[in-house]
Specification:
Number of strands: 12
Shape: elongated
Structural class: alpha+beta
Largest sheet: 8 strands, mixed
Radius of gyration: 31 Å
Number of helices: 11
Length: about 350
């Protein structure tokens, strides 16, 4: 063992780079390294021999691993020092011109949506991102047994032991803003509620934090026909097409009755979405007439007033309109991605000069 120790400690000390060090590691403590093979021989020894050889082999292995780690750290420091000799900046030099920043697609699309609905008479309402259980679920007619209230889907805030107050959550939709607006302003009401929402999900088309905009219109004699017209006008203006066909499919949401998923007619040409033509259908949002219990929770008499509501993911329609393939890239903070998909900071979207330029 003394020979092995001297051999490998010497080789480690003489290693010139990390590749050579890795070769030494494999030869010594790799799966088929000399020390590893010695460890396997312990099973053939008598108990008395193992009591002597076992601790000695473990000590040798630990010493070699420690020497490898120390040498690797030393080589990394040396490599960094070499880089620092060439990668330096004279901070006394005069500043250089910097290119103008770009607007993130999420910000751009949020502004586009707000400009569109402002033209239709909707105002913007906002609310807290940390919501109490009542505003986020109960007031929206979501029962206690509903799957959306489970910890698999919703982020609950920590409560101290013995705290009997209602739980708080990171809001799972912007619908609580609708409740707060009804309580504050009553009817009639016409608002959109953009903002961040949170759900426990993560893949190519879902992230734990994403952006949503919901719309609410309350008045007398409002019907699904009004909802259909508003959504048609929105889709035509947002995707900048002259005509669009919507398909309403019956669905179920606790806060609307009747409820409908909304699809748009489209086609895919070489991976590019074309809205308003083709034989395909693409789901873009959920909608429906506001449930009477939701109106009551908002302090509005459903015998006198009725309304419609809808919700759409800002990230999703940004991906569709601008051909962005992966939702996760929105949050990677990659400047190369932002320079490619970002928008000029002075090009504010408006209906007069065009939403996207």
């Amino acid at each position: 063992m003394d020979d092995l120790k001297a051999k490998y400690l010497g080789q480690i000390a003489d290693a010139a780079d990390e590749n050579a060090l890795e070769d030494i590691r494999v030869s010594a403590v790799g799966k088929k390294g000399e020390i590893s093979l010695k460890m396997r021989e312990l099973g053939k020894m008598t108990p008395e021999e193992r009591q002597v050889a076992g601790p000695a082999l473990n000590a040798l292995k630990d010493e070699v691993n420690s020497a490898l780690a120390a040498k690797k750290a030393g080589l990394a420091d040396a490599a960094l020092n070499e880089r620092l000799k060439t990668e330096w900046l004279d901070v006394t030099l005069p500043g250089r011109g910097r290119p103008a920043g770009t607007i993130h697609p999420i910000s751009q699309v949020s502004q586009e949506v707000q400009a569109l609905f402002a033209d239709l008479g909707f105002s913007v309402a906002e609310g807290p991102q940390v919501e109490d259980d009542w505003h986020n679920f109960d007031a929206l007619n979501i029962p206690a047994h509903h799957p959306a209230r489970g910890e698999m889907d919703t982020f609950y805030m920590h409560r101290a032991e013995g705290d009997n107050r209602p739980p708080h959550v990171l809001r799972t939709h912007t619908s609580p803003v609708q409740i707060r607006s009804m309580l504050d302003h009553g009817a009639p009401l016409r608002i959109i509620c953009p903002g961040r929402v949170y759900r426990a999900d993560y893949d190519q088309t879902h992230t734990p934090m994403f952006h949503q905009v919901e719309g609410l219109a309350i008045d007398k004699d409002i019907s699904m026909a009004n909802l259909k017209w508003v959504l048609e006008e929105f889709v035509k203006a947002f995707f900048e097409v002259d005509d669009v066909e919507l398909r309403f499919r019956a669905s179920h949401f606790p806060f609307t009755e009747p409820s409908a998923e909304v699809d748009i007619r489209c086609s895919w040409d070489n991976g590019q979405l074309k809205v308003g033509e083709g034989d395909d259908w693409l789901e873009i949002l959920g909608s429906g007439m506001v449930h009477p219990k939701v109106l009551e929770a908002g302090g509005i008499d459903p015998a006198d007033w009725q309304g419609f509501a809808f919700g759409v993911g800002i990230d999703r329609i940004a991906m569709l309109k601008y051909g962005i393939p992966d939702l996760r890239a929105f949050f990677d903070s990659d400047l190369r991605w932002l320079r490619n998909y970002g928008f000029a900071s002075l090009d504010q979207p408006n209906l007069a000069s065009g939403l996207s330029r």
